[in-house]
Design a protein that fits this description.
The protein is an alpha+beta fold and about 210 residues long. The strands form two sheets. It has a five-stranded antiparallel β-sheet with strand order 1-2-3-4-7, covered by helices on one side. A four-stranded antiparallel β-sheet has the order 6-5-8-9.
């Protein structure tokens, strides 16, 4: 994560729910500065707490409840895009809710990274009592997930050209079998080379997860 200012509105998180489930979170709060950072801390805390107390680990129910809590007293009318994924470590089964966030990139073992696209739900805190979609898919040993905020694809050079999803996918596939830590560094290096001396207008946040199976 590289914030555009001293405090940012992006956040990511990953934590074990129990011995067999891990949660991954990627999110981007509207606005900048201290108000966005405070809203971000509240959203991050609510998502983790609600996930840890979920009985059935339904991502749609978790985001539904967090949405209603964030809507209460939201006088600034801020919102947050959220990608929440819960992975069962023993099987690779994933449950995902995408609330207005960027499409993740997925690499099937032995293949290239590509965008996993499907219909988004509305951003969190935009309005109360929203029903959020939940999608399921399966990771097999050697598969990888790459999630990010729009500061990656909207990184801008001095000619006002955007880094974009095509350059992102090309960057991921340069060394697609690199480990998660190395891959993040390689993508950031390509973003920096593209942007050059142009100022950074948005937070740049990325997370990579590789599933190794049992």
């Amino acid at each position: 994560m590289t914030p555009a200012k001293e405090v940012g509105g992006d956040f990511y998180d990953f934590f074990l729910i129990d011995d067999d489930h891990i949660a991954l979170v990627m999110a981007d709060v509207s606005g900048k500065g201290v108000p966005a950072a405070l809203f971000m801390v509240n959203a991050k805390t609510l998502i983790k707490n609600r996930t840890m107390t979920s009985n059935n680990l339904s991502t749609s129910e978790i985001i539904h409840d967090v949405n209603n809590m964030l809507c209460e007293g939201n006088d600034a009318e801020m919102f947050v895009t959220v990608w929440l994924c819960i992975i069962q470590l023993s099987t690779g089964n994933c449950r995902i809710t995408n609330a207005g966030h960027e499409h993740p990139a997925v690499k099937v073992s032995g293949q290239d990274y590509s965008l996993k696209t499907y219909r988004h739900s509305i951003a969190v805190a935009a309005m109360p009592d929203v029903k959020f979609e939940e999608h399921e898919f399966k990771l097999n040993p050697g598969d990888s997930l790459f999630v990010y905020t729009d500061g990656v694809t909207e990184a801008t050079d001095s000619e006002n050209d955007l880094f974009g999803t095509d350059r992102l996918i090309a960057s991921l596939n340069k060394e697609k079998d690199a480990d998660a830590t190395a891959l993040l560094g390689l993508v950031k290096k390509d973003i920096d080379a593209f942007v050059g001396n142009a100022p950074q207008f948005d937070d740049i946040t990325m997370l990579c997860f590789r599933y190794l199976g049992k």
